[in-house]
Request: fold
Amino acid sequence: MDVYGLIGNPVGYSLSPPMHEAAYEALEVDARYVTFEPPADAAAAAVESAATLGVAGLNVTIPFKQGVLDAVEPDPLAARIGAVNTIDFTGERVTGHNTDAAGAVRAFDEHGVSLSGTAVVVGAGGAGRAIAFGLADEGMAVRVANRTESKARDLAADLRGAGESAADATGHGLDALADLLADADVLVNATSVGMESDGTPVPAGALHGDLSVLDAVYRPVETRLLRDAAAAGATTVDGAWMLLYQGVDAFERWTGREAPVDRMNEALRSRL
Ligand code: ATR
Reply:
């Protein structure tokens, strides 16, 4: 039996165990997915222990996404983002990946959203960094807006340093949102605003019908931002899709098999 898992602190509310175990059941993979809560300063030790115990794969969440970087060989995207959310122990080396970027990109793809033109990413924390790099790699011009403007500017500089496709990335405060959105094609909320509350980081008046909007928040599934976006005629993609596709990407990386996406989605949505 293969053991997969999640390290985070806390991990009690994670939806990854039912999502991955639904996939194992559907494909008759002999595996279990368990959660671990190591002490916050023990990221590297946790990775080494998992390797010693023969764990096949780990997802990584707050507060360990940066801390595990030193204990794995990050792929180029995870290294640029500066955070790892998926560790693969099945190869010769322990490798680190960031499937949040792919999760956001695939959530848009599966909703028929073409990732060209200009994207506005609100938030410059871990999720914002992953999504901004994912969209820039698709060739989008990325504008980052963040409450702490200096973090948005720093992320934009990192994006510009990462390659030609991101040469025009810019960083702003939240007060610039209305201007930034006027001619934008894609909007992503990568802040925690709207999580278990009815807040939104984006003024409703700045939204319009040519936008496709992803909210990385998935509790609640229908956030105020998504309601406002739908009312403005925008295409909406809820955060459970991003959560699903980051899990799908991890499953496929670990097992080398095509994920049973519908079964994983059912397991996830029935618990939200
Ligand atoms: P995650 O890994 O989920 O991205 P994080 O790294 O703690 O978490 O980042 C949280 C993001 O939400 C940041 O962009 C943060 O803005 P600051 O950089 O200014 O802290 C944003 N955020 C959190 N609470 C917010 C609020 N009340 N209003 C606006 N932005 C907020």
